[in-house]
Amino acid sequence: MSVDRGQRESPAGCDRPRPEWVLCSETKVSFFVLNAAYEQFLQHLKYERGMSPHTLRNYASDLEQ
Q1: 48 in a structural domain
Q2: Is residue 24 included in any domain, yes or no?
Q3: Confidence band for 10, pLDDT divided at 50, 70 and 90
Q4: Considering the domain boundaries, does residue 6 fall inside one?
Q5: How far is it, in rounded angstroms, from Cα 59 to Cα 56?
């Protein structure tokens, strides 16, 4: 079963078209959830995996792209 991931007009309050499977209210929540996961991942790499500052910077740069 395939999912149509086409574009549709943005709901009120959104400034640009979004994929059909993303709604504005979900986007705001998803941003905070994703940002928290991003920070937790970098903390895990730093403290539990002991990765160097250079490696952490490169991971962060890759994730921001």
Answers
A1: yes
A2: no
A3: very low
A4: no
A5: 5
pLDDT at 40: 94
Residue 1 has a pLDDT of 47
Is-contact 24 14, C-beta < 8 A? yes
- Residue 54 — φ and ψ, nearest 5°? -65, -45
Position with higher pLDDT, 37 vs 20? 37
In a domain, 41, yes or no: yes
Q: Domain range spanning residue 58?
A: 31-64
In 3-state terms, the chain is what percent helix, strand and coil (to 5)? 55, 5, 35
Average pLDDT over residues 4-12: 49
